[in-house]
Amino acid sequence: MSLPYFNYYPKDMGYKTMHLTLSEFGAYNRLLSLCWTTPGCTIPKDIEWIARKMLIRSEQDKAILLAILDEFFIVIKGQYANKRLLEEYKKSDGKYKIKVKAAKKGGAATALKYKQKDSANRLADDKAIRRANQEPEPEPEPEPIINNILYIGWRPKTLNSTTKTAQMLRDHMSKDVYELELEKFVEFHIDNKTESTDFNRQWRTWLKNHFTYNDNKKGKQNVRNNKTNKYAQIGEQRRFNRGNLLKEYQS
Question: Which of 42, 159, 179, 232 could form a disulfide with 81 if both were Cys (CB 3.0 to 4.6 A apart)?
Answer without folding.
Answer: 42
